[in-house]
Amino acid sequence: MKKIFKFQLAALAVLAVVSCKEVKKEATDAATKVEAVVEEVKEEVMAQNITFKMEPKSGSEVTGEVSFTEENGTVSMTGTFSGLSEGEHAIHIHQTADCSSDDGTSTGGHWNPTNEPHGAWGDKEGYHKGDIGNMTADKDGNAIIEFSTDQWCIGCEDENKNIVGKAIIVHQGVDDFTSQPSGAAGARVSCTGIIQ
């Protein structure tokens, strides 16, 4: 009788150990699934979109709208403009979200947190983080620009990437990508501050 009892007790102990291992494995699997869902939700929450209206400067009639969307570490910018003269026009991010002056100079120079020379975006010789480039207006004065980069962020703590507190400036002329410090793009004809 004692042997049978000991055998039953041993069998119960083995069963308990096996059951605990299964429960632990199930708990680990569940925790892994929860972590995956949390990461997915974080990515969805991290998607941000901000949109601003452009205002005319320097006696122009240039208006428009600029939107920034950040998703999965990339910021995409879309701009639509009207009132431009036909041809190419430079568009840049400038240092300060202050469009109070009539000529847009209250925005300061190009946003250049890494102290690089002015140039075309991605140039191995260097470029400003605000050197977006040129866009082409049609005969009716309308232009659209789309631009994406992982070198910007919306409201992050990295001042070399954070575009909040800066300004978008559209210039009357074309950026030549070589003249220092700003590409000889001419008057500032439209402005908006990037404010979150």
From TrEMBL:
It comes from the Bacteria. Gene3D superfamilies: Superoxide dismutase, copper/zinc binding domain (2.60.40.200). It comes from Maribacter chungangensis. It holds the Pfam family Sod_Cu. InterPro entries: SOD-like_Cu/Zn_dom_sf, SOD_Cu/Zn_/chaperone, SOD_Cu_Zn_dom. Belongs to the Cu-Zn superoxide dismutase family. This is Superoxide dismutase family protein. Residues 62-193 form the Superoxide dismutase copper/zinc binding domain.
